Amino acid sequence: MSETAQHSAHHIDVKEFHPRARAAIHNPQIRQNFRKAMDGLMSKRKSAFEGWDLETLRDLGANIRMRALANLPDLLEQLEQKLTENGITVHWAADGDEACEIVRDICVARNARSVIKGKSMVSEEMELNHYLEEQGIEALESDLGEYIVQLAEETPSHIIMPAIHKNTEEISQLLHDKTGTDLSHDVEYLTANARLQLREKFMNADVGVSGVNFAVAETGTLCLVENEGNGRMTTTVPPCHIAVTGIEKVVPNLEDVTALLALLTRSATGQHITTYFNMISGPRKADELDGPEEVHVVLVDNGRSTIYQDDELLDTLRCIRCGACMNHCPVYTRVGGHAYGTTYPGPIGKILMPHMVGLDEGRHLPTASSLCGACGEVCPVKIPIPDLLVRLRQEAVDGDKLHPAKVRGHGAKRGKVEAMIWKGWSWMHARPGIYRMGTSLGARFRKLQPGKLGGWTQYRTAPKLAAKTLHERMKERSQ
Amino acid sequence: MSSRDTILQRLRHRTGGELTSPECDFSVLNRPEWSTAEKLDMFEQTIESVHGEVHRTTEADWIDRLAEILQTRGAETLLIAKEHEIGKALQSATKSRGDLPQLLIYDEPVESWQESLFSEVDAGITSTRGGIAETGSLILWPSVDEPRLMSLVPPIHIAVLKASELYTTFHQAMRSQNWAAGMPTNALLISGPSKTADIEQTLAYGVHGPKELIVLVIE
After folding, report:
1. Is there a contact between B191 and A195 if contact means CB atoms under 8 Å apart?
2. Is Electron transport among the key words of this record (chain A) (predicted)?
3. How many domains does chain A have?
């Protein structure tokens, strides 16, 4: 476990990526836990798509998401109208803080003291648990992985499997220490105990908070994808249900959901479908016998409308949060989710978080990649993640004349010396005479070349200038 | 200006170029037309691969099978609907036979009996609006008569599925039943018992919902 993982996200300095990554790489437990899990997930995904025309399906997924984004403001208004007609109250939040306040106000109006939560990455983004605790409202996670992470006072290390960084032994010890269960490697026993403890909580919770996988504008339907049933409990048992979602999760038609669901569960965990696909279109009707009497939706912006401004960065918003990019990422697999210090780790985190925390804070994120391209190849909605990583790297050193930097905190990595070197480089390359003189001087005095070149030679040997320049060799050949 | 208006205005007046709406061709989801027998085989195979249990039975025999299944599990109580034909058939059957568990009818708001629903009900039986062969899924639209928690809280969920109501894909089911025309307050696809792999990817069943999902297929 990395040291920082023990603190709430509030205290994590995103900039300190390197020390965290180094610590994780030298932690055999972390390496083993992630390697094992990611290997399993990759092979499950592969077999789940057998017999499918995957490229065409991914094209469809990408087109559905692009169509939704192309009509985003209209769709959000349509969604709001349909949800309202269905009896669901719609709220809008500019950022995480405002979203937290909206949730608090609903709780206060209902005199609610306890909140039970289904899995929601947007609520992690909002740091909702922390906020509610400060307001004296208990917030308890009910997804088993999230529950474990909350007991450990950590943050999720994977967006689909939050406790993937821990093995059974560590979890057994944690549950023993925090909830008094016997020390046991019997996963069934550990799970059964969590069921007992959480059932009590479901019955007594005043409010249930969930995320949303897809919000359908046409019918005003909130779709939730899950295996455990805690999502159904959260949205059915307490008298009030609050769903929090990013504004980009809207799709125009119910039909769209069929293709996205087929891509989501197979990409995420290699399942044909999850145990539950829960479609909520309204609170309990007068004659119904269960279900929440109140349903609220909080549409959270938190930087998304800024990403939306740029034609290239916009693709970031296609994401359906399957986690396949992290499962296939050689960097994520080695350093684990906590090293990033961000709500969303892995490749999607590297292209999304700089917008949320600023490129000054998140300056190292786009560079934590070998640009191998695996993330882009497996993305079910074809987000060109490697291209976006390169774009953000350019933004971090302040772009150029053709691509002026826009992202908040841009230019944070721009160094005077490096900028000067590249300026000189481009000046020299635009002048053939000086270029030839430069290369021939380089060849002549190559013994004087320094052996250490900063970060470059930390893990590599320095490149050596050749004894003869290419021009000289070509001349020799033609003689 | 409200956050709503700020967000919508920012989205409407974006600085980038005009966004185009690509065509969406759903034909990649199409499957060949399968016979009912093929769909049933596929359904059975898929749902059993995720720990669901399928029993093929008939209109005449399903109560016998149900009684057998519940007896092997030692279930003492079974939650049923008041008005649905399944509930009615069970109510009349129990008068003449002693091998069914005690029947509980879900006819009161959950608030008045939540505690016993959560701790004393061994099994619940619901109807379905059909099934999906490709993913091994049951379609449930909870209603006044068959409330949402019937299929969630008891440790055993028994679902009755007519083989003739099997669809090949989710897309086909949704289109055939014209869901876009209007959705109920809650609609569900259920594909197996509740499960988790959150502890080191080891599968465990019945984490929050039913530990067992038993499908009675009426052929």
Report:
1. no
2. yes
3. 3
